[in-house]
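Hi P.,

Sorry for the delay on this. The queue was packed all week, but I finally got your sequence through. Input first:
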Amino acid sequence: MTGNKRYLTKSRFKIGHECPTKLFYLDDKRFGNNNAENSFLEALSEGGFQVGELAKVYHPNGIEIATLDKDAAVLETLELLKRPNVTIYEAAFRYENLFIRADVVVKKEQAIDLIEVKAKSFDPSEEEPFYNKSSLKKGDPKLNSEWEPYLIDVAFQSLVIQKCLPEAKLSSHLMLADKSAVATVNGINQKFLLEKDRSGRSRAITQPGTTAGGLGAPLLVKVCVDREVELLQSSNYLEEKPFEEFIGFLSDVCKEGKFVKPSVGAHCKSCEFRIDEKSKKSGLESGFEKCWQDAKRISPSDFVKPFVFDIWNFRRAPKLLEAGKIWMAEVEIEDISPTPDRKKSGLSSSERQWLQVDKIRKSDPKQYIDAEGLATEMNTWKFPLNFIDFETTLAAIPFHVGRRPYEQIAFQFSHHTISKDGVISHASQFISTNRGQFPNFEFVRELKKCLSKNDGTIFRYATHENTVLCQIRIQLQNADVEDRDELIAFIESITEGQRDAGSTWTGPRAMVDMCELVKRFYYHPDTKGSNSIKKVLPATLNASPYLQKIYSDASYGSRSCKSLNFHNWTWIQKNEHGEVVDPYKILPPIFDDLALEEMDSTISDGSIADGGAAMTAYSRMQFTQMSAKEADLVIQALLKYCELDTLAMVMIYQHWKHEVEQRLQRAA
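Then the structure:
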């Protein structure tokens, strides 16, 4: 660990509060970090920069501390605070080895408001939203785990300011996206465009002439959190340390580069320092492995084995770890007690958990497929089969009049069909890329047009498509559009109603969830328990000579297999080990014919490889200045990505159908 001085900042405090040992790995370049991502992309997808700028508009005439020099920033802040009344953006405070930048500080005489701005939604009508409801009933208030990370951030900042300005009357606030607010002005998102400055820092730029009055009804709400800050500052933390002592401890860890004895457990499953084999082969070390070696004396060679907490959806892992069972192979059948689901055919959750464990115990690499169960399901399906996938985003700042913060925006879909005789067609697609446009109703119109061309079974993967359509149904109920009733009837015909939709229903053509079919009838050890289509597809392709044969030539996007975005494309490509390369990894880059240096591209690898990246690419088109040529490349990449999502569903279906037919023939 480097001996350079490290301040305990807001971000380091948050990490240290989660796990003090992580602070040792954080700045040491020897250790891989899965969270070391492009902050610009994160801000694009979450809307954080725009919300921050909007908060400044709501606190006008402030002075921003722009310098990156910590000493200069602190001196400038203290000088400004000598004024009787002042608003400061990015105010800098330092006490001993603690350093913070506060989003907004408003001083009026001796009263100071600390305002932490978060791109998180908040419902002002909810009673005691920050607390665990059962703890309030018991008279022992505990903070809701959803809100605690935000609140402890404010508590840390509050303590630093109190130390720097002991005479001030300090009040702490969160400023959040108001779920109950409704935009009364169009194009608010276009008032805050993202860019990178010369130093490479990401920022949002408020367009000239933007005022709070010009933005219509307020979209953010300021919530006083003094009571919650007091609760946190009076609580005990690691080894019963009081709040201030705990902060001092974390400060020393940062300053001296201490390695804190790790406390390992099931919480380590999602540790950002748990890196993959590819990262380790590149020379990076795993902080996750160092912790477990130190705490449990595990041999480095053992880390190829899965842990008990790697069992899918398994809540008993902490108890098994306490009992000394670390590895999945040590789990016994009574630890899971698999029992059938009497309401559904196929595997229950506990049976699926045991299947995953049993294959590890027996070193069984083969896929599991319930041919009879799938055959029964397939017999209920009607051709042509329709496979659909949506790309959506949740915008913190509404694009359009009448919309609320974090309302669902459905900007793209893909639609594949497969006929009874096996002919595959990428039948239709939709994408909306116009800046500031609210696309949802046009999205449903186009989807209705596509799916009304036949009466075959419709498939989705997981709950997302159903959830999105139910949310658009609610939007339509409050909209003045000519075909409202027709669109609502269509949505209800292909969905299942949810509690938050106001009523329940099951449409006559309700979509079949392929992810549920995976959970109940199919498992491959290569997925490591995951049901994500991004894991199931590569595992299926490697398990299926049948699919490899179909997709190993350049027939996709030909007359025999229609594609709207690919021409004579080969999906089956193999690496040096003879394994099928994940098709998502071979999608064309977004910026394949433009110089990244000239564009100052913010997408580091140039490709779209997951749903978050698709959302980010769409957000980039909404919130950044982009040339028409660059925008066209992004659109083409989005179309290809979404097409692969529905083709993946087709491929999985084809594999199942082939396996079912083969196995039932052998059983006959």
